[in-house]
Every structure is written in structure tokens, then in C-alpha cells.
Amino acid sequence: MTAPIVHATGLVKNFGRTRVLHGLDFTIQPGRICGLVGHNGAGKTTALNALLGLTRAEGSLQVLGLDPYANRARLMNDVAFISDVASLPRFLRVRELFDLVEGIHPRFSRSKANVFLQGTDIRPDAKIKILSKGMVAQLHLALVMAIDARLLVLDEPTLGLDITYRKRFYRRLIEDYMSDERTIIITTHQVDEIEFLLTDIMFIRDGHLVLDLPTDEIAPRFAQLGVASGNTEAATALGPIYADTHFGQPVMIFDGADSTKLEALGTVSIPSISDLFVALMQRKTLNAGDDQ
Amino acid sequence: MSAYISLIRREYIEHRIAFLIVPGIIIVAALALITYGFFANDLSLQPGETIPANIYIFDTVFLAAFGMWTAYLLIVLTFYIADAFNADRRNNALLFWKSMPQSDLKVLGAKIGAAATIFPALVAAWAVVTGIAAYFVALAFSARLGLAITPDFASVLSSWAQISLAGIVYMVLTLAWYAPFFAWVGLLGTVVGRWAIPLSVLVPALVVLAEAAATLGGTRGTMTISKFLEWRFAGLLDEKVVIDQVTALQPASAADLIGGTLASIDVPNLLIGLVIGAILVWLASEYRRRITIA
Questions:
Q1: Interface pTM (ipTM) of the complex?
Q2: pTM of the model
Q3: CB of A141 within 8 A of CB of A186?
Q4: At B182, is the secondary structure helix, strand, or coil?
Q5: CATH classification of A6-206, choosing from 3.40.50.300, 3.30.1360.180, 3.20.19.10, 3.10.560.10?
Q6: A 129-148 near B (Cβ less than 8 A)
């Protein structure tokens, strides 16, 4: 068995008295595309920052066999990441940025970066500070995809981009970037846009990992039931983890329920990741105290 | 090494205006003001006034210019370091820099590297250019004063080369002397950002005040820290060396100027200062490494 890319045990992070990560345990194997999904403030960016050596966390954490906090610079030879905020040096021109990264990153390919910029309106002589937010994001994505990294971490990579570019980006990520040797960890709020490409999914809620499994295990484990008229009570008795109504029809999601019993009560389908997200991420808000 | 050069190049791109553009503007402005003074005043010698041969006017102007460029360099480098050590935190840019396989020490080291190489080299180049301007100023004043002596070009060229060499050595030694102060400003810049410059003076001032309070202004003990800081900040310039040079009525001598400067340096203190500077930069890099990115 190959060594995992990421191995975390009992990962805890406190900001002052506030505990942000509550002992996360997870492993990410090579060649996987893992989606880390959670509400704002759930702790996903903190978890990613710990993986990237940007913040120290308690517990055991190994990324590519290294303690990321102690070996951040060394680790970045094999890890590329983009944060959710466009953070490129604004005083540089595009070509100066490529010159710089060519000089300081041994695995950056300028020719690849230029290829990734094709189809955008970004000129090599343009100053980064005059580019629109979407163009800066496009440039940053071209930059990280031109780095031959073993692990690519994308934190809200398409925030602020229009739908055309978002779709093109994810297509390129699969077709031009992804390979068996590469691993991608991606967070986004637009789960429905990435669920087709994920091989693994992790849901994080209030610093707890509430789901961590390969996407091909969703179908055997979870089921969505469109409850037929008159079967609501029987379906409820089977213990759904979530219940809602779609156009007047009760819809329930089950975890580990007997499929033959469900089929007798209505239409059974595989829940999408978005549906699972809604089902599993119910939480009480601090102010309202309501489920949302 | 190539990464280090790329990082220094980045510093040059980000901060070149103060070292490449502004000195040019200063020279043009100074020439304009001198030209104004030249035509606005009666420059004829009054009874009893004497003036040495124009070659020494050139020496005086050029030496003074080098002194001023050194002062300019010290001031601008202080602002540069205070800004550069904190610049990566603006616009979340730290996330980009931390995504590169370069340590915080190397990134900060490149900032110090830029402050010790390319930026002083640019100001030194402007200072040398000032020598050319100083020649024309000397020439014009000689003509206007009616001395009717065409400066001996070979002598001027020799003086220009000698003073340039001595001036560059003086700049380098001055930078080395003040290195711990720059590193101190850099450390503060990493921690407190734009407040680094006032704090870089305020903190030592408070220490001196505490010492003065403890010794009743030195009447109940020795104000060791105060005297040390005063001596450390006094700099390297031995005025006598310069005055001897311009009043000797001889072409400038780099050997005399450099020798005079070297004689006034406390070498062990200079070396200790460099070590302290290196420690402060390392501390800044450790702080930068620990900056929490939420």
C-alpha cells in the first residue's frame, strides 16, 4: 500500500479559548480528489492551513511524510495551494510574476502557465493590481496548475469567477492536471459544481468531521426516498437522518437503511453530495438557536 | 542562489522608485536651485574674500554630495526595511509567499540582501553621477567668479575617481555600522508594521529614560546604555579627515580619505553589530514563521 499523502490524528486547533478543530482524524491517499465541505466558520480553512504548515495544530499531522509546520518551505516543493483570497503580489506585472516564480519554485513551468492563460484576457505586460478580481483568480489558478506538485490544495478556487470560467477550470483540472500521482484537496461552497470530480468527500461541521468517505461508497450507504402517499409514518419509523418536502412530497434521506424496505415505501435514489450536505450539516445557530 | 537573486529582484521591482527615480529628481531639482542661486546673486568676490582653485571647489561639492547621499541612503533604507519586512502581510500576500518553497528567513534575508547590495549600489551610482554635475557647477562658478581658470580635466577626473572610491567605501562601512539598527527596524516592522520607525526610536528612548531615572541622570551612577547608544548613533564620519582634505589644496586622495575613515572605526564593535543584526533578522523570521493565518 502506498504511503498516504495526508495523515491526521487528533488534530486540534485553538484560537485563544475557542476550539476550532476538535480532534480530526483522516487520511488522504495519493491520486484522490478530496472535497472538504463545510459552512463558513466550520474549520475547513483552518484545517487546510494546518495541512499547509501555515498554522500550528495539536495532534499528529503528516503531509507527504513531513510535519508541515516544521517543514513548510520544504513541503512547498511538492505542494501547491491557492487560498480563497487573491493574494498575488499586486506590484508585479504578469511576466514579472512568472519570472519570479520561475526563479523561486523549481517545479514551475512557464510554458504550462502560458498555456493555461490562453483563452483569458490577461496580457503578460499587465500589472496585477489593474486586473479584475476574476482575472487575478484566473492568473493564480494558471500559476498553481503550472507547478508540478504532488498535492494541490484549492480553497474556494473559483470564488468570484463566472460560470463559464468555473466550468472550464474544473474541466482543465481533470483533463490537463490530474493524474495518478497527484492529489487534490478542494473546498468550495458550490458543492454541486465539483461533486462530479470528487473521489472522496469530507464534511466538517463546527470543527468536527461528520462524514469522511469515498464518493463511490455513498450509493451503498445512503439512500434518498421520495415517500409515496400514505407511507410517511412507515418511512419515518425507519429513522431518516433528514426529512424535507419537495413540491408537497416528503423526501427523506437514510444512512444504512435496508433498501428493500425503502423501495416498498416510494422512489429510492442516490442522494447527491449537495443533498447529503444539507442532511448532515444541520446545526443550531448561535443567535437564533434554530436548526438551519 | 538563483532563488535569492529572484527575491532580491522582487525587492528591486517593488521598491525601486526611492532608489532609482527619486535621486534623479533630487539631482535635477538641486541643479535647478543652484542655477537659480547662480543667476540671482552677485557672486563677485568681495574685498578680503578668497577662494581656492576650482579643483578644490569640486572636491568640496562632491564630498558634501557623497555625505548627503549617504544620509539619504540611511533614511530611505530605514523606511524601506520598515515597509519591506511588513509588506507581505498586505492584501493577504503572505499566503502567496508562504506557498513558495522558500523559508521565511530566506525571504527576509533577501530584503536585507537588497538593502545591502542593489539599493546602495543605485544610490552610490547617483552619487558618482553627482560628481559629474559637481564638475559643471565648479566650472560655472569659476567662470562667474572671474578666476578664469579652466579646471584641469585630468585633475578633476582623478579627484572624481578618488572621491567616488572613498565615498563608496564610506557608504559600505556606514551601512555595516548601522546594520543592527536596520535589523531592529526590520524586526519591529515584522511585528508592528508601520509603527516600526517611531518605535525603533521610542523603545531605546524609554530604556535611556529608565537608566536616567535609575541613576538620577547619571549623578548616582554611569549612564552606560545612554553613552553607548549616543556613540553608536554618532556614525563614522570623522569631520577632520574631510576638512583636511578640502583645505589641503591638493587633489583628493582616496587612500587618505579611506585611511582616515578606517582609523575612526571600532572594528570589534562593527562586527558585534553585524552579528546582533543577523540575530534580529533571524528573530524576525521566526516571528514571521509563526504569524497565524486564520
A1: 0.85
A2: 0.86
A3: no
A4: helix
A5: 3.40.50.300
A6: 144
